[in-house]
Structure formats: structure tokens, C-alpha cells
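Re: the 94-residue chain
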Amino acid sequence: MSESSSSLPPERRSALADKGQRLYAKDCGADGSGLCAEGFAAHMVRLGHFEVVHEYLIFLEIELARLAVTDPDRGSKTADLIHRIRRKLIDATV
């Protein structure tokens, strides 16, 4: 049985947030599609750490807003990533 997000200590949630941000920065995938970041989010969903995923989506949305100005191509890929992660979260909670 997995620990729910609400029972994760703040230090653990912070470490997971840092890990997710590092994986996003790697821009994994042949086309920079964010496969590492998506895999991280999918794993957090499987573990039932939904709040970690929600916080990760907030981080990605902030990145998306920044990229709209600085790098629209990566912004488009980030928007797709956000959509895929949201779909995983919805599928897991339905």
C-alpha cells in the first residue's frame, strides 16, 4: 500500500518536487517531449501521490507561461506534457 500525499512529510514532498523539476529540465525524449517528466508524474499517480502531481502541474503551468514569451516551441511541448499528465490524473481518479 502506498503513502498518500497528505501523509508525506514536507521534506519528502519537497524532494519529489525538486526531482520532478530536474526531470523536466532534462527535456527527455528524442524530440524533447518530456518523457522523463511524464514518467515521473505517472509514477506519482500510481503511488497515489496526487498532491505531488497537482503541485507539479502548477510548476509546469508557470513554466508554460514563461515559455510562451521565451521559447514558444518548447512551450507547445510543455502544453502537450501538461495535457498528458492531467489525463493520467483524471484516469486515476475516475
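The first helix runs from residue 10 to 26.
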